[in-house]
TrEMBL record:
Keywords: Hydrolase, Lyase, Purine metabolism. The keyword Lipoprotein does not apply. This is Ureidoglycolate hydrolase. InterPro entries: RmlC_Cupin_sf, UAH_cupin, Ureidogly_lyase, Ureidoglycolate_lyase_dom_sf. Homodimer. The lineage of its organism: Eukaryota, Fungi, Dikarya, Ascomycota, Pezizomycotina. The keyword Coiled coil does not apply.
């Protein structure tokens, strides 16, 4: 059963979805022609494109990474890559009782995370926009109840304690001991590591840090990868019609290891019980404000 947490009233900006702005939480795959020019840190600007299909296509490799930390799970249940199709209906929007211009409110009442796997949402030919809402994690709690509610979570692998052999020590040396030649730097690997920095390890094990929650407005030609353990709202499509997404992640079938949820309960002034409100203007203008 999801844990319920109290959410104070805060106001946050809603931002356009770009790789640089979303980097702490995962990756953005932007298919628009202007993406490399609009965002200098775009993946397509870092990873060199190559010609493919007899010169009729351009290939951008390593645009995102499917990560798997299930070997660090409590159950040790093996996982496998899973590709799903999500057909999402437009979310219900409430009219704002106070706005002077036509404005609708979207209520976010739940956040979820996948502790052991990344999760990629790829829109399929949709013109609808969607909201991407994420939050960093608080440090892991030592409180027994909180720790139990959020477990299981990836544990650090113990470091080997045995002494290294002379052969192993020499194998780590640079330059190489018998050839006197150093290995050249792997510039592509370095670039990929920089782009996928949020994928190196799971996000922290604690509850979502609501002080750091962020909201993004994503277009239909943008895909998004949530890094392992990143708190995020379920898919929220905004528009007139349904939108389909291909979703790529790892799953083991152990429910509490595949997905964890928290329910947000509002407190303070504002609509009763509402925790996170996104104030959505006319879609064509892309005017969005958010209130937590």
């Amino acid at each position: 059963m999801p844990q319920t947490i109290a959410a104070p009233q805060l106001r946050i900006p809603v931002e356009p979805l770009t790789q640089s702005s979303f980097a702490p939480f995962g990756n953005v795959i932007d298919a628009s022609k202007s993406a490399p020019l609009r965002d200098s840190s775009s993946i397509t600007a870092v990873l060199k494109p190559t010609s493919a299909n007899q010169g009729t296509a351009t290939k951008y490799a390593h645009v995102t990474r499917l990560t798997n930390f299930y070997d660090r799970s409590r159950s040790k249940t093996p996982s496998q890559p899973n590709i799903s199709l999500f057909v999402c209906q437009p979310r219900h929007l409430d009219p704002s009782p106070t706005a002077s211009t036509p404005t609708s409110l979207f209520n976010v009442s739940i956040l979820e995370r996948h502790p052991f796997t990344s999760q990629t949402f790829i829109p399929l030919g949709t013109s609808s926009s969607y909201l991407v809402i994420v939050a960093p994690s608080l440090p892991g709690s030592t409180h027994t109840k909180a720790r139990s509610a959020l477990s299981p979570y990836p544990t650090d692998k113990p470091k080997p304690t045995r002494a290294r052999s002379i052969r192993e020590l020499f194998s780590l040396a640079r330059p190489e001991p018998f050839t006197n030649s150093g290995a050249p730097p792997d510039t592509l690997s370095a670039a990929i590591a920089g782009v996928h920095a949020a994928h190196r390890k799971p996000a922290g094990p604690g509850l979502p840090d609501l002080e750091g929650i962020r909201a993004f407005w994503a277009r239909g030609d943008q895909a998004v990868t949530y890094a392992a353990g990143v708190w995020h709202a379920p898919m929220a499509v905004v528009g007139d019609g349904e939108a389909a997404f291909v979703v790529v992640q790892n799953v083991s079938g152990v429910a509490e290891e595949d997905c964890q949820e928290v329910v947000l309960e509002g407190r303070g002034e504002g609509r009763e019980g509402v925790a996170v409100e996104l104030e959505v203007g006319e879609e064509g203008e892309g005017r969005i404000k958010a209130k937590l």
